[in-house]
Every structure is written in structure tokens, then in C-alpha cells.
Design a protein that fits this description.
This protein is an alpha/beta fold. It is built from 7 helices and 8 strands. Strand 4, helix 4 and strand 5 form a beta-alpha-beta unit.
């Protein structure tokens, strides 16, 4: 896989013309450049090395950790409960079903379940999906999504936390997900790293969310 086009406007990018914001090396010493598309302003990761992107995820599966009784889990609960309170305000009283696309270990869905939502998830990482099923009792679809309805129902709320930044062509997937899996008056929640955040500005090229080449 190479990535020399903007994932949003599909224009080919020249890192010299785009004036790379950062030049970084991944763990295999491949060079990646963080550039701002001159056509649409989107910031993305440019690389012309033909890499096996799957190899960057295999190692992550082996480092799956149970963080349920840690400070990190407590922080997650505070943050996700804030999201759930907003959802309860925006959703009608009968909007109770949640589909979390890229649900990971099922942490968000476990908190939603505690708040009375009916939840299901999608996760292609088998260790993470297995964790969600075993420890939180969540039904998880493990197949790679391309199009269509995932379960035999549409959902009132569709959440996508830190998935979009991993995709080289996110728009068709989003289009299919929303049309086929979200109710007409449903709520879509997307979370991605914010390059303009104070954490990004403070950390610069050391900002953990750059995470090349996983984060496109």
C-alpha cells in the first residue's frame, strides 16, 4: 500500500509542493510525511513506500491488555459518560440502540450498556472482539465491512471512535454505514485526532496521534 493522494479530495499530492509539516520515520525506518493538501486543506500522511499495512496491526493485537481496574479505565469512564449524557439529551426517549463501529475491547459499549442502551459492535481484531464478548457480554460482528446492513436492524445511534484516521478512503464507507445502518432520525458520532488541538501543538512531531503510517 502507498498513500500519495488526499483521502478526502483524492488529488495526488507532491510533498515538495504541499510543504511537509513533519517528516517522520515509522518503526521499520520508512519515511512518512505529514502534509496539508493544497486543494482541500486536509492534513494527511503521505508515503510512497509500498508497505504491508497489516503488519503494523499484528503486533498491536499481541499487546492486548485488560485495563478494567486501572486509572486509565476510570478516565475512559468519565470521558465516555460525558458523551453518553450528551446522547441522552439529543436522542429521543425511544432511541436506545447503539452500534459502535470499530468497538475495540467494547469499553464504550460497556458503559452505554450500564446506562440502559441496547448495544452491538463491529470489530475485526479478533482478540479485541473476543474481549468485548467475554468480559462485557457484547454481541460483536467480526467481518470486514464493505457495504450493506451489518445486523438485521438499523440503529438509533452510530458511533465511530478513532477509526476514520486509519482509512485511505473513508467517504464511501461512511456513506454505506449511515445509509444502511442508521435510522432516518438517528445520531452519528465521529471522533478523530484533532491536529489543531493544544496537545498536537505542544508535542509537535512527537504527538502520539500522528502514529505513522497507521493514521492516514
Amino acid at each position: 500500500m502507498i498513500n500519495t493522494k488526499c483521502p478526502l479530495c483524492y488529488r495526488s499530492a507532491d510533498p515538495i509542493q504541499e510543504k511537509a509539516l513533519f517528516v517522520l520515520e515509522d518503526e521499520y525506518a520508512y519515511t512518512c510525511q505529514i502534509v496539508r493538501c493544497v486543494h482541500c486543506g486536509n492534513i494527511f500522511t503521505w508515503f510512497d513506500n509500498d508497505i504491508n499495512i497489516n503488519s503494523y496491526y499484528d503486533d498491536l493485537d499481541y499487546t492486548l491488555q485488560d485495563t478494567r481496574n486501572t486509572l486509565f479505565h476510570t478516565i475512559q469512564k468519565i470521558e465516555y459518560n460525558r458523551v453518553l449524557r450528551q446522547l441522552k439529551k439529543k436522542a429521543g426517549s425511544d432511541q436506545k440502540t447503539v452500534l459502535d463501529f470499530g468497538c475495540g475491547k467494547g469499553v464504550f459499549l460497556s458503559f452505554a450498556k450500564e446506562k440502559g442502551f441496547f448495544v452491538k459492535g463491529v470489530e475485526t481484531s479478533l482478540p479485541r472482539a473476543g474481549f468485548a464478548e467475554k468480559y462485557f457480554g457484547i454481541e460483536v460482528n467480526k467481518t470486514y465491512y464493505e457495504s450493506g446492513q451489518i445486523f438485521s436492524e438499523k440503529f438509533d445511534i452510530l458511533t465511530i471512535f478513532h477509526v476514520i484516521e486509519h482509512l485511505t478512503d473513508p467517504l464511501p464507507l461512511l456513506d454505506n454505514l449511515v445509509k444502511e445502518n442508521l435510522t432516518c432520525n438517528g445520531i452519528l458520532v465521529i471522533e478523530v485526532p484533532n491536529f489543531e488541538s493544544w496537545q498536537s501543538k505542544w508535542a509537535g512531531k512527537r504527538w502520539m496521534q500522528l502514529d505513522v503510517p497507521r493514521h492516514v
